[in-house]
Amino acid sequence: MTTDSTYTYQQIARAIEHLTTHYREQPSLSELAEKANLSEFHFQRLFTEWAGVSPKKFGQYLTLEHAKTRLRNGAPLVDAAYDAGLSGTGRLHDLFVNIEGVTPGQFKQAGSGLALIYGVFDSPFGHYVLGTINDKIALLHFLNETDKPETILATAWPEAALSQDPASLQVLADQIFPVSDVASGDPTRQIQRRLPVLLRGSAFQLKVWEALLKIPEGQLASYDQIAESIGQPGASRAVGTAIGSNQVGYLIPCHRVIKKTGLFGGYRWGTERKQAMLGWEAARVDG
């Protein structure tokens, strides 16, 4: 695990917070650089390396009108034909995520003695803890400074015995966030490996999480659209609850769901991180 890119993200996150709060006033480069505690020259270079676009262009991606346009032109979720169960494979930008979904009852019947292998890694959006069970990704949780990975893992998977072994997970971590992405946000990458993800939840939750995989990178969907896509148009509030309980961040892209008004709404790993992800993805797609 390295710390340079996480420190870079923390600097940029402060600027993004200011940018999204004051985007209507179009904050100057000097204002944003001051928030990041950098000179204007170094901030412009660092931000452009991370996002692939200038701070001004990034700010445009975070405006209300841009979000509304993305919603209107988003994935055809309502028309998507969903496979029965969760045996299908969903495409997520350059990654392939293969879902294995089980209900709590089914999981309990699988027996005890589970081993959860975990490690802490770096990403363009800060440190995260990655946990696997039987070589399947069971948790991807972004960390704040006060978070304890062991507490997060034990809460999510109380039946499992924890084993810290980041070396054995490094190849997998490099597939999720390639070194080029971690270093600078470079979108150039070719990944063909399927990433197996283990999701445990109710049948409703599993349907919602599967629906998230239908949202292409750079596009957005509303809670109402997700509810309609799974055949339950009146369940937008329940959809929000299911999205909030997702244990596999980024790969199951709950950050791509916003309010139908165009407002980004909350995110279990922080509003600034959600905004950073959406702007970063929009820049990658436009690039």
Description of the structure:
By secondary structure, the chain is of the alpha/beta class. Helix content is 44%, strand content 16%. The chain is built from 13 helices and nine strands. It has helices at residues 4-21, 29-35, 40-51, 55-61, 64-72, 104-109, 149-156, 166-176, 179-184, 203-212, 223-229, 236-244, 271-286; strands spanning 89-92, 95-102, 115-121, 128-133, 136-142, 161-164, 194-200, 221-222, 257-258. The strands form three sheets. The chain has a four-stranded mixed beta sheet with strand order 5-4-3-6, sandwiched between helices. The protein has a three-stranded mixed beta sheet with strand order 1-2-7. Helix 1 (4-21) packs across helix 13. The longest helix has 18 residues, at 4-21. The chain is globular and about 55 Å long. Residues 81-95 and 183-192 have low confidence and may be disordered.
Features:
single chain; 287 residues; alpha/beta; four-stranded mixed sheet; three-stranded mixed sheet; 9 strands; 44% helix; globular
Task: Describe how the helices and strands are arranged.
Layout: H1 4-21, H2 29-35, H3 40-51, H4 55-61, H5 64-72, E1 89-92, E2 95-102, H6 104-109, E3 115-121, E4 128-133, E5 136-142, H7 149-156, E6 161-164, H8 166-176, H9 179-184, E7 194-200, H10 203-212, E8 221-222, H11 223-229, H12 236-244, E9 257-258, H13 271-286
Parallel strand pairs: 2-7, 3-6, 8-9
Antiparallel strand pairs: 1-2, 3-4, 4-5
Helix pairs in contact: 1-2, 1-13, 2-3, 11-12
